[in-house]
Amino acid sequence: MTTSFKDRNLLAVIGDEDSITGLLLAGIGHIDEKHEKNFLIVDSKTQISTIENAFERFTERQDIAILLINQHIAEKIRPMVDRYQNAFPALLEIPSKDHPYDPSKDSVLKRVQKLFGE
C-alpha cells in the first residue's frame, strides 16, 4: 500500500528527556494502535542499537512527516544519519539545552553546501 505525503501528519523525536518533555507538552505525542510511540527518550544508558532501531523505525513509518533528532544524539549514529537521503520523513537535527547546535555537523546542511559547491 502506497501512502501519500498527505497522510504523513506526525512528528517523531529522538532526543534527551528535556527536549522530549517540551515537545510532548507542545502536543506531539502519539501512540498508535500497536502501542508504538513516536518518540524515544535517550539518556546515558541508552544503547546505540536502540537509537539505531528507533531511527530505522521512524524513517520507515508512513505517518511521520518530520523526524527531529538532537544533534548530539545524531552524532552517536552519524553514519546512519549521513546515509539517510529520503525527502519524507524530513530529518532535522536540533540543539538541546546542554548541547548547542553546530552547523558543521548537520548532515542536511552538509548536503546543501555540497550541492552549491561550498
UniProtKB/TrEMBL annotation:
Q: How does it sit in the membrane?
A: Peripheral membrane protein
- Specify where it is mainly localized: membrane
Record key words, sorted: Hydrogen ion transport, Ion transport, Membrane, Transport, Vacuole
Q: Name one GO molecular function term.
A: proton-transporting ATPase activity, rotational mechanism
Q: Which InterPro entries match?
A: ATPase_V1-cplx_f_g_su (IPR008218), ATPase_V1-cplx_fsu_euk (IPR005772), ATPase_V1_fsu_sf (IPR036906)
Q: What are the TM regions of this chain, as residue ranges?
A: none
Query: In its keyword annotation, does this UniProt entry include Ion transport?
Result: yes
Q: Does the keyword Transport apply?
A: yes
Per UniProt, subcellular location reads as: Vacuole membrane
Q: Which cellular component appears as one GO term in the record?
A: fungal-type vacuole membrane
Which Pfam family, giving just one, matches this sequence? ATP-synt_F
State its role. Subunit of the V1 complex of vacuolar(H+)-ATPase (V-ATPase), a multisubunit enzyme composed of a peripheral complex (V1) that hydrolyzes ATP and a membrane integral complex (V0) that translocates protons. V-ATPase is responsible for acidifying and maintaining the pH of intracellular compartments.
Q: Which NCBIfam families match?
A: V_ATP_synt_F (TIGR01101)
Q: What is this protein called?
A: V-type proton ATPase subunit F
Origin organism of this chain?
Thelephora terrestris
